[in-house]
Amino acid sequence: MADTNNGGMWTVLGVIIIGTFITILNSSLINIALPKMMAIFGVSLDSIQWVVTAYTIALGAVIPLSGYLSDLLGAKKLYLGSLIVFTLGSLLCGMAWSNSSMIAFRVIQGIGGGIIGPVGNAIIFRTVPPEKRGIAMGLYGVAAMAAPAIGPTLGGYLIANLSWRMLFYISVPFGILGVMVGSLLLQEFPKKSPGNFDLIGFITSTIGLVCIFYVLGKWTSIDWREMEYPLLLALGVFSLILFIVNELMHPTPLLDLRLFKLYDFSAWSVVMCFLSMAMIAVPYLVPIFLQNIMGYSAMQTGMLLFPSAIATAIMMPISGKIFDRWGYRAVMIPGLFLFVAVSYPLSFLNTDTSAGTINLLLIIRGMAMGLVASPATTMAMNSVSKAMINQASALMNITRQVASTVSIALITTILQHRIALNSATISDQLSVTNPVTTDAVRALQGVYFQGGLSASDANGVAISTLAGLVQKQAYVDAIDYIFLLMMLVMAVLFVCIVFIDLPKYVRTRLQELHNKKEAVY
Predict the structure, then answer these.
(1) Are 253 and 201 spatial neighbours (Cβ–Cβ below 8 Å)?
(2) What residue spans of 162-262 are helical by DSSP H?
């Protein structure tokens, strides 16, 4: 039953925001700590990547369980329990003495973090009445945007001035606060008998998601001649097929895939997946562009990205208010239009683009993101009954997690392919017989020769410099190409949103015509 008391509603939202904030903040901090942990633990890049992979795998394994456990234990107990587990995992990660211990403690973190998201969403939708869910999800989204925005800057400061261990310890007081406030103020919802535990569903989903997430996490570095990865991929796909078949036949499935029979739920889930793909491109690619191409430090990159996150945080509550009053079209259509409009100039980024221009484009994109980030989730969740909210939240979260993981793997694959293609194309144009190439080498050779190098050394450095410029230009062109693809994705999504209710309208009209014919006869 929705809590219509405003004070209670916003208090509940505040407790959920705490859990969301620390889980997302932790994910945005971890990559900054990896180089330091490599040095401290004395391990290779492949070994330290397991610190990230272990968390992702644990996350994917427990999300499908969240709906069942919420029905069994109650949403309040499960949420507070998962927050305790995550906080304990954070404390242990800060105390880790080796890479192996860090990986084990990250699994504990992932188990807690994987439950916090879907159960928190379900609590919001069971507490907040439908007419206020837009603004509630907008405020909830502020935490989701603020955490990755401050993560790089905060992480850089903590490592430089304190210790990499503080990246984990910083979550502990917030976690304790969330547990204390939540235990006092969160209300428990009536429990629902979940029925017999779907053991086959749990086993097949765990094997499938773990294999798929593991392979996708290593996608760009995989040597497909090694049998390990094709076998894991095949096992993952086969397990997920068995999972789908089992869920459709089981009387009390772990994840009720029959929710996808609801047109609104399935349509908005698809919209959410494509939004995830388009949204993830900028936070993934822009730091690469700024640091690898423009030579910015991690701190400078974080400061440049920060205003766009502020723009998103400002727009999300506004978007929620508009959504509650005028519906999804009032925010999704202008938001997607703005997304398409700003993606076009982003596809022309180059080494001459000023920081001010990049900042302006990212702020506009941040405003667009603030408009479109929450409505798809809200529309999907609004389409299900209260009794199915736990299941719907679990299904939405695992769908979003899979979409994000696939998107990163896809974007990275396209990026590497385009870099190789662009490098070959530019290199062909800059052959030794091309006078432009010889003039460029000669000019660079002259600069290095005047700098004190011998003629032969100057020639070698000049050729090396030109090769580096070719690689850098290939990188820039590849990033621009992906931004152009994302613009096309958002343009298609814009058209889909305009006509998203058309199938329902056509079906209703056909049913009316059918009823009229039956009335005549």
Answers:
(1) yes
(2) 166-169, 171-185, 199-217, 228-249
Q: What 3-state class would DSSP assign to 27?
A: helix
Band of pLDDT at residue 32, cut at 50, 70 and 90: confident
- For domain 1-195, say whether CATH 1.10.10.10 is its number: no
Cα dihedral 336, 341, 342, 348 in deg (nearest 10) = 140
Dig out the tokens for 39 from the structure.
């040095």
Yes or no: say if 41 and 48 are a contact pair by the CB < 8 Å rule.
yes
Q: What one-letter code names the amino acid at 357? A: T
Q: What angle do CA 160, 163, 169 make, to 5 degrees?
A: 130
Pairwise CA distance, residues 341 & 360, whole Å: 13
pLDDT at residue 395 above 80? yes
Give the residue from 58, 38, 421 showing the smallest Cα distance to 206.
58
Phi, psi of 387 (to 5 degrees): -65, -25
Please, is 519 exposed, middle or buried when counting C-beta atoms within 10 Å of its C-beta (0-12, 13-18, 19+)? exposed
User: Quick one: tokens of 174?
Assistant: 């917030």
d(CA 94, CA 169): 6
Q: Which of 472, 504, 100 is nearest to 293 (CA)?
A: 472
What pLDDT shows up at residue 456? 63
Question: Which one of 85-89, 186-190, 294-298, 349-353 scores highest in mean pLDDT?
Answer: 85-89
CA dihedral 216, 222, 227, 230 (to 10 degrees): 30
Cα dihedral value 172, 178, 179, 185, nearest 10: 170
Q: Once rounded to an integer, what is the mean pLDDT over residues 195-213?
A: 87
Q: Is the dihedral of CA 54, 268, 252, 124 positive or negative?
A: positive
Find the farthest-apart pair of alpha carbons in the chain and give their distance in angstroms, rounded. 100
User: Are 188 and 77 contacting, i.e. CB atoms less than 8 angstroms apart?
Assistant: yes
pTM of the predicted model as reported, rounded to 2 decimal places: 0.79
Cβ atoms of residues 396 and 272 within 8 Å: yes
Residue type, 278: A
Say yes or no to pLDDT of 1 above 50: no
Q: Please state the separation of Cα 481 from the chain's center in Å.
A: 21
Coil vs helix vs strand at 460: helix
Q: How far is CA 372 from the centre of its chain?
A: 15
